[in-house]
Every structure is written in C-alpha cells, then in structure tokens.
C-alpha cells in the first residue's frame, strides 16, 4: 500500500465551480454534449452524453458552461498544492491525483487519519474526491475509478484478486479497444488477465497487456512528480453572477484555503495578495489584501476581505474570483505557547496587534490608523509625526512642559486690550518659552517653516489650561496651540 | 465595597480609588467620563492607567480623539506613543466598530474612545465586547449625555473647580451611590511622573479638598 489515488468526480464541473451551493441545476458541456453535471441536474433527468439541446428540453433552467481545459489544469495544480502537505510526491492525472504516501502514513497516524485530514483540506478548497489505495499507481487509480474506498494491502496475490474483480471500464484504455473486448464477451479485468499474451497481441491489444503489467507491478511505471510553482493564481467561477458579500466570501474562502494549504506545504507565507472580482462588462475590481506580517492564515484573509467588501461599491455582479499571490516568504517554524492563548507570547501579541491594525485599516482607510513618534525638531507642529505602530525608537522628547492635546493647526486668538482672549481674558501662568527654529526650511521667498514664538501656559476664565504663543515678530498675534487636558 | 465587584486597575489617585467599587478603573466594564470642556486635566486622569501595565506587545487604542495627542506629554507621563494606536473614525458606528475590534483582538490593555450621541443598542454591543475582553474601556462623552441612560458601570462627571483642580462627580457606580464630589489636585497632575512598569506603583502626590 504505497499509492493513494484521488479521483475527482465530474471534474470538468468541479474545476470550474468547486461544488457550489446553489439550487439551479448545472452542467458542463463539451462539443455540445453534457460531460459533467451536478446532483440537481441528475435528479431532473439530465444524463452525461446527452446533447445540450436535449438536456435543456428536459431541464429548462439548466445552466450550461463550456468545458475548459485550462481551468481544469489550473484547478488540478491547485488541488495538488493542497495535498503537498502529506507527501512531496504527487502526480497529476487527467481528473485526479496520485500520492505516494509510503513515507507519511505513519506520520499522520495511519491511513484513516491521513485521509480524514486530506479530505477536509480538499473540502475547504472546494474539492470532493474519491480515493483508493494500492501498491502500484495504476492499480490505485483503477480502484478509485471503479470501487472507491478500497484499500489493497502490499501483497501480489491480494492485488491480482482485487484487480480481477474490476469491470473493464476501470481500465483507462482506448475506448474502441475496450469495446472490442466487451464484444468478445469479456466483462472484468480478471478475464482479460487470463487471456494468453499472444492472443492479446494478435488483437492489437498489446498495450492493454502493458497496462495490466504495470497495474500488477510487473513492469516499471515511472511518473513525473508535481512541482509547485512559486506563485498562486487560482480562479473560481460563480454559476450565477452575484453581489452579496456572503456568497463572494464563501467563494473567496475556498481560494484562500487552497492558497494557504499550498503555502503550508512549502513552509511559506505571503505578505499581501490580490483578489480580483471579475465582472462581465467592467474591468475587474481588485482588492489588495495586506496582511501586515507574512502569514498563511486563511481566516485573516477572509476577515480583511469582508471589510473591503463592506466598504466597496461593486459596479456589477461578480462572475468569477481570482486570487493572485506572488513573493512567497519563507516562514520560520514557531513554538507553541506553553500556556496557550491564556498567556500569548510577545511575538504572538505583536502579530495579533498587526492584525488588528490591518483590520481597522481595511475598513477605515490606511492613513486613519497610526501611532505617533517624536522627532528631533523644536517646532511643536513638527516635533511629532505619524508612524507605523509597533516597536521602534522615538527621538528624545523636546523642550519644557508640553500639553497632552495639540491642535493640528494653531488657532488664532482674539486680542483685546493687548491681552489674549478666549471667551474671556487669558491669564498667563508661566512662560515665556522661546522657540526659534526652522529658518532653514525656507520655501522660496517667504519662510513658512520659520517659527519665532514665545510660548506661555495660560489660564482661561473657565479654568482651562491652555498652551498659547505670541509671534515674536509684529504683529505679535496670539495663537492657541494646545490644551493641558 | 461590594465583595462581588472584581478588582479594578488602580487609577493612580488614592482618593479616587477609594471612591470606586473595585478600588480602581473597572475591568470588563464601560466607564464613561462626561465632560464638556477640555484643558482641565481630564486626560491626565488616565495617564497612570495608560502608562501602567507596560508589557511587551500590549497596545493601547484611542478611537477618535478630538485633537492630536502630544507625544512629549505622553512620554513625560510614561506612555509609549509607539504602542498607542490612534484611530480616526467619523461616525458613531465606525467608532463603536473600531472599539469592538480593539476589544476583541485580545492584545490591548486599555481602549479609550470619544463618543457623542450614540444609539443605546451600539452601547450595549460595546458593553458585551468589553465584558469578554476584561480590560477597561473608557469613553469620553459630552456632558448632556449624562441625562440619558447608559449601560456603563461607572459614570464620572468631570469639571473644573479652580485652576488645576479637577472636580469629579460620581453619577453612577456599583454599590452605594456617592453624594460627595471629589477634587483632585496635584503639582504633577497635568503630567504625572513616569511610573514604574507595575500596576501598583505609588500614586502621585495628591491633595484631597472635600
């Protein structure tokens, strides 16, 4: 038992839509013939192989999409990426995957546990697969196609017995050849195995014998392994274009889950990704998701997407979603905290803080969430700046006592009888503190950066303590610059 | 006072601590500070809370402050401004949303917000979020809001009595109602000295004039 075969039923449809949840029957057609369909369509009487016109006559609200080989290839690569966590040896087939799990079955706690994990990973990405295990890749695939769920032990006799019971159609051979055998009265693989070799060769069926030998492990069957491309570009179509956030999020989640499982397999994370919402008549709406720290947390992506979607006005319903992520960043392994979430480590708190910031930014706008830091300038309005929240050095604080509230722009105060006035005369309590700086910030003729001021702490009639200044140069106007709150 | 009230975080002002049911700012509860004017030391009241409990990677969040926080004054009070996330939000809905996110993130040690008139339903949502977060949530609200009911466990009205003296009327608290206003005054009140990074540091010099 070395090979696990996964076969995706109705692959042309899964590749396009990933098992959508909806009520309208759905089918995929190739050359005007139905080649894959969902349960709803099947229940209404649509059958694979039917002409599209016949199918539409039977089920008038049937949605028919053309088969797309490109979508199938890309979806298969994505599904393969999801399984890379379980083994590095993954082989791509037309409508399924072959996984060499000899080395990892024990690691995941046995075949059943491995299958359970694998299925839930695939389901999160929207894939549904049938599986079977066998000592050779070809046998595993045949079993998965004909009798899914079977697991054949590593024993030649058992393998031959299991294969012998399979119907002829399990063999992936030329359809005309199989028809020929069927016409000769052969029904199972076992009956073909019993035929003498030269009898098969005489019927131009030597290839069939080769397949059988490979399935039985009597002939080498080398296969190229799948290699992950260092970027993600996956697309998912919606059967019906939709506006509602929940539907879009549900679909996006599948892409995120697949993306994150692939990242997990290569121990990488991403800092940002693009989610494109495709419309029929408009250029796609692009959401840029910034994660703050390199991460492969699908929940975090979903959270940010929800905020973006809540803010956006979509020009039109969305027909398909596409997730693009390049620039993978290697993520170092992380130790779990001994006390778990009760006492998160500083690193984890930092990360959760970053997440909070990105979350707030996603809804409120990137420039509306910030921290402040002091900088080396004597002018109060330039002594601090907006910075990225987080650890970092802050220049030493400047000057004397400063108020807790600074006005973004100094506010001109009335002057009555040579006294600054704000709902009443202001009484100067302490000062002046002369601030004379910024002559170097000349901007043309005037020098707007120049500050020549005498600062005072003043007391208003309402007992408020204010930070005011008088211009050093005429006309000696008074300004309110801060509040000792 | 009441044995069922959990311990709060010391406010740094002994007289105020004594008047509060949990001997400090209530944890896991909303506190409303109702005031109409600025410049009386109403923000300084919070500085020991913002400076204390400085643990690595713990954040303070200010949602919609009315002016720019002064970094020098914050530094003088021992508050690390780089770990203070300032959030600008316009509508009450956005402000409440931002506060709830901060409360739910589990990485903030205190959330301070400025709210005007707001739906009671939104306030109750905040109340639920702060219960789960188990940190103090301080809301600055305009004085007329004192006439409206609020789910806040503690409501203090702040006003100026004289220069540098802050008058605190306890409008609502757990346990027996308070009928005497408190007056806080101190040399270092505008900018209390930086406190050691422990919760139970000695409070700054304080004079109680009753």
Could you explain the architecture of this structure?
The complex is a heterodimer of chains A (485) and B (210). Chain A has helices spanning 11-17, 39-43, 52-58, 69-83, 111-124, 137-146, 156-164, 175-183, 189-194, 197-202, 206-216, 245-265, 298-311, 346-364, and strands spanning 3-7, 26-30, 33-37, 63-66, 90-92, 96-100, 130-134, 232-242, 268-278, 285-295, 318-325, 329-330, 369-374, 384-387, 405-412, 414-416, 419-421, 427-437, 451-459, 465-471, 478-483. The termini of chain A are far apart. In chain A, strands 8, 9, 10, 11 and 12 form a 5-stranded antiparallel beta sheet that branches. In chain A, strands 15-21-20-19-18 form a 5-stranded antiparallel beta sheet, with no helix packed on it. In chain A, strands 5-6-1-7 form a 4-stranded antiparallel beta sheet, with helices on both faces. Chain A contains 14 helices and 21 strands. Chain A is elongated and about 120 Å long. Chain A has 485 residues and is of the alpha+beta class. Helix content of chain A is 32%, strand content 27%. Chain A has 3 domains: 3-24 and 62-216, no CATH class; 232-333 and 341-364, 2-Layer Sandwich (Dna Ligase, domain 1); 405-483, no CATH class. Chain B is of the alpha/beta class and 210 residues long. Chain B has a single domain, classed as Rossmann fold. Helices cover 21% and strands 24% of the residues of chain B. Chain B is built from 5 helices and 10 strands, in the order αβαββαβαβαβββββ. Chain B has helices spanning 14-19, 47-51, 71-76, 92-105, 120-133, and strands spanning 30-34, 59-63, 68-69, 84-87, 108-114, 137-141, 154-162, 165-172, 182-185, 207-208. Chain B has a 9-stranded mixed beta sheet with strand order 4-2-5-6-1-7-8-9-10. In chain B, strand 7 and strand 8 (165-172) form a beta hairpin. The longest helix of chain B is centred in the middle third of the chain and has 14 residues, at 92-105. The radius of gyration of chain B is 16 Å and the shape is globular. The two termini of chain B are 20 Å apart. The model of chain B is unreliable at 187-210 (pLDDT under 50). The chains are: A alpha+beta (485), B alpha/beta (210). At the A-B interface, helix 14, strand 13 and strand 15 of A face strand 3, helix 3, strand 4, helix 4 and strand 7 of B. Strand 13 (369-374) of chain A pairs antiparallel with strand 4 of chain B.
């Amino acid at each position: 038992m070395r090979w696990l075969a996964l076969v995706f039923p109705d692959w042309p449809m899964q590749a396009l839509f990933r098992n959508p949840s909806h009520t309208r029957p759905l089918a995929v057609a190739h050359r005007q013939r139905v080649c894959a369909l969902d349960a709803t369509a099947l229940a209404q009487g649509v059958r694979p192989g039917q002409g599209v016109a016949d199918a539409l006559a039977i089920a008038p609200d049937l949605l028919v999409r053309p088969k797309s080989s490109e979508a199938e290839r890309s979806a298969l690569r994505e599904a393969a990426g999801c399984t890379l966590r379980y083994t590095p040896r993954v082989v791509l087939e037309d409508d399924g995957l072959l996984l060499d799990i000899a080395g990892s079955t024990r690691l995941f706690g046995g075949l059943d546990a491995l299958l359970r994990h694998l299925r839930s990973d695939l389901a999160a990405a929207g894939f549904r697969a049938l599986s079977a295990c066998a000592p050779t890749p070809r046998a595993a695939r045949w079993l998965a196609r004909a009798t899914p769920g079977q697991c054949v032990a590593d024993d030649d006799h058992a393998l031959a017995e299991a294969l012998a019971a399979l119907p002829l159609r399990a063999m992936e051979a030329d359809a005309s050849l199989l028809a020929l055998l069927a016409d000769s009265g052969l029904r199972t693989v076992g009956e073909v195995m019993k035929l003498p070799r030269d009898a098969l060769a005489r019927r131009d069926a030597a290839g069939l014998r080769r397949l059988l030998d490979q399935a039985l492990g009597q002939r080498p069957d080398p296969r190229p392994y799948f290699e992950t491309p260092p970027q993600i570009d996956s697309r998912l179509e919606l059967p019906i274009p939709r506006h509602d956030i929940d539907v879009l999020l549900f679909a996006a989640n599948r892409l995120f889950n697949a993306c994150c499982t692939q990242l997990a397999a290569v121990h990488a994370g991403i800092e940002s990704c693009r989610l494109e919402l495709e419309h029929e008549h408009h250029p796609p709406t692009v959401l840029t998701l910034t994660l703050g720290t390199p991460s492969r947390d699908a929940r975090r992506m979903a959270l940010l997407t929800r905020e973006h979607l809540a803010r956006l006005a979509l020009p039109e319903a969305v027909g398909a979603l596409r997730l693009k992520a390049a620039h993978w960043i290697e993520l170092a392994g992380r130790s779990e905290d001994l006390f778990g979430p009760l006492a998160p480590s500083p690193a984890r708190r930092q990360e959760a803080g970053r997440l909070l910031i990105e979350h707030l930014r996603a809804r409120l706008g990137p420039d509306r969430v910030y921290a402040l830091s002091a900088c080396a300038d004597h002018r109060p309005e330039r002594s601090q700046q907006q910075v990225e929240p987080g650890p970092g050095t802050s220049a030493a604080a400047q000057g004397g006592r400063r108020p807790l509230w600074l006005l973004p722009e100094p506010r001109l105060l009335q002057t009555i009888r040579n006294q600054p006035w704000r709902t009443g005369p202001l009484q100067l309590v302490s000062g002046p503190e002369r601030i004379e700086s910024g002559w170097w910030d000349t901007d043309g003729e005037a020098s707007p950066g120049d500050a020549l001021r005498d600062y005072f702490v003043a007391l208003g009639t309402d007992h408020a303590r204010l930070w005011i200044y008088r211009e050093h140069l005429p006309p000696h106007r008074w300004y309110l610059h801060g509040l000792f709150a | 006072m009441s044995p069922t009230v959990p311990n709060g975080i010391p406010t740094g002002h002994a007289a105020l601590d004594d008047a509060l049911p949990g001997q400090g700012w209530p944890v896991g509860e909303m506190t409303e500070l109702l005031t109409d004017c600025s410049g009386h030391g109403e923000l300084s009241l919070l500085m020991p809370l913002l400076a204390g409990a400085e643990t690595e990677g713990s954040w303070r969040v200010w949602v919609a402050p009315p002016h720019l926080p002064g970094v020098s004054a914050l530094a003088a009070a021992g508050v690390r401004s780089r770990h203070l996330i300032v959030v600008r939000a316009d509508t009450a809905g956005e402000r409440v949303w931002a506060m709830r996110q901060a409360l739910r993130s589990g990485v903030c040690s205190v959330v301070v917000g400025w709210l005007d008139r707001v739906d009671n339903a939104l306030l109750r949502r905040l109340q639920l979020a702060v219960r789960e977060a188990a940190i103090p949530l301080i809301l600055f609200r305009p004085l007329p809001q004192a006439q409206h009911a609020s789910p806040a466990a503690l409501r203090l009205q702040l006003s100026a009595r004289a220069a540098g003296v802050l008058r605190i009327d306890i409008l609502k608290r757990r346990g027996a109602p308070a009928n005497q206003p408190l007056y806080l005054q101190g040399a270092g009140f505008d900018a209390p000295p930086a406190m050691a990074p422990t919760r139970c540091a000695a409070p700054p010099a304080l004079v109680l004039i009753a």
